[in-house]
Amino acid sequence: MSDYSFSPAPTRRVAIVGGNRIPFARSNTVYAHDSNQDLLVAALQGLVDRYNLHGLRLGEFAAGAVIKHSRDFNLARESLLSTTLSAETPAYDLQQACGTGLEAALLVANKIALGQIDVGVAGGADTTSDAPIGINEALRRTLLAANRAKGTGNKLRSLLQVRPSMFFKPLLPRNGEPRTGLSMGEHCEEMAKRWQIKRLAQDELTLNSHQRLDAAYKNGFFDDLISPYRGLARDNNLRADASLEKLASLAPAYDRQNGTLTAGNSTPLTDGASVVLLASEEWAAARGLPVLAYLRTGETAAVNFVDGSEGLLMAPAYAVPRMLAREGLSFADFDFFEIHEAFAAQVLCTLKAWEDADYCRERLGLEAPLGPIERAKMNVNGGSLGCGHPFAATGGRQLAALAKAIHQRGGGRGLISICAAGGLGITAIVEK
Amino acid sequence: MDYVTQIIDPPPSRNRLLLDGLLALRKPKLEGAPTLPKARLVRSAVELIANDIAAYGRACGFRREQGVPLSYPHVLAFPLHLMLLTRPSFPYPASGMVHLANCIRQHRRLQEGQALRLEVFAERWVAHAKGQALSIATHAYSAGELVWQSESLYLRRDVANPVGEPWGDSLGLPEEGLRRTQRWVLPADLGRRFAKVSGDFNPIHTSLIGARLFGFRRAIAHGMWTLGRALAAQQPPGGLDVAEAHCEFKLPIFLPGQVALWNAPADGPRRAFEVRNPAGDKPHMRGLFIWHPRFDESRP
Lengths: 432, 300
Fold this sequence. Notes:
heterodimer; A: Peroxisomal Thiolase, Chain A, domain 1; 10-stranded mixed beta sheet; globular; B: alpha+beta; Thiol Ester Dehydrase, Chain A; 7 helices; 12 strands; acyltransferase (chain A); acetyl-CoA C-acetyltransferase activity (chain A); transferase (chain A); Thiolase-like (chain A)
């Protein structure tokens, strides 16, 4: 036998010890002057305070933001340095569109499972209020050419190409798919038409999301999941007085003639941040911290939406059956479903797809449809339609809330599903 | 037909072409049937220059990994088209010739740095319902082999009793089943940007005043830009080997503006497509894009 052979250590369970987020705020409201880093620091420091992690060196901090300036290349590390965690805690950034937060959690969890680290924090932040604005593309190219030019004369000649108009046409971040030029709402509108999702069903789902979120706040569910920030104690997108009549009065936002998606049944641009504390059972026990639930596994998927053969936000429809088959589970084995509500229509399309025998056979390769999801088990403490959706912060919000719901119930199993730009989807199973 | 081969070297300057265009604004009224120009205009070695291709690609939305755009050689041949149309012996004013349709066939992959021999000649007259159309052929050879060719159909409106074979809707495209898959926002300076990379400074694309002079209320997008944009949007990753693109130009696209790409969902290595107005009820372009897949795209 070679001197270098080794036996990998057995994998171990990954405990979700807790989570923390700041209340989510609609874009350009209370967090208008906060950067991604400010928001992420607030969420992370809140977690450190709650679990008394001051001065501790953790295995790692993994986090990201979707809308990010190039100067924030080390967002996670810079954020960590602004907290009372030990400065010797390593950190790294990652980005998977709206899947960023959950993907970060899977990466940290996998390292814990493999024994590479004992404890880590995963998170994400996003602000569309403090969005990066780039300089005009023509100006940028001209400046780069001047930078490449050799000699002062050549540099000056390059700079002569600069035109005054270049200064007044900045490059704004786009709320659209790079390859199609269509906004996510327009893509989802196409999906709603393909799956014949009614406006009323979307509005009902939206109302439910607000009502359940409001009830969860009233029950104190979020008391140990949220740190107030800038005077905000709950998500300011939440409309406790929402009604079907009010939702029905909103005009379609993406297709004014035949559309069913409105500002009400779509998530607004939102600012916020969330983090989750993951650890080995031994670490949690040594710190005297109870385990809320275990992060069992995850699965990502992607669909070809560019040529229109699949809807942009349908990837979770593929990820979930793959994950269930791998784990030998079915919908009947779940007590909770945490489905990210980018749009009410996108949730309803996915649910309908899982009930459609033809679709399940032809697209998902299943002999029988996955079946319906019991609505009473879905987004029991509200969803993105109610609280808003700061892209990279949604995964952490869902993971912490689901773990707590399972803990409160005294055990159970839950599924998380998130759709993301670029035809991506990410899902996970949490249980205890 | 016997053509007279004329080597063009150096290529005509932009000002020369504009001046010839101006001089050809008026032509004496044609008596009897038009005669086909006999010249075959040839540039013996035109290099596919990487920087020029990159600039053209940026203007049309091609990505670098897509290689030499299928529509790019047209840009190199276009000055020769214009020379043919502005010759004193050509029966109609060049400015009145409307680009009606274009058909491109590529037989071999094009490479940056490769030199092409370009041959441009008037191929045949075509009788169109709206007037007299003329087909101009472009052949591109590399090492003696035909690697790329195109047929450009130009129309002179309001010519009674046009000669040639009748024009038919040759594409046979589906009327139904297309779906909107993309939207493009077209800036006001798109015409000028495309002029810089294509060398076609036709004022109807580059300026409001120029457009007004020729009866348009605003500058209009260049048809070959629209074709380039549509091909860029639909080309699979990687360069093209054997490929075809056919298109018919419909209503003009006014700048600035918005248009949408409609096409049929995945159906093997071919796409029927239309570029339509934002409401989706008026076509600016109808086309068909066919490519030879580099691997079996039908596998599950």
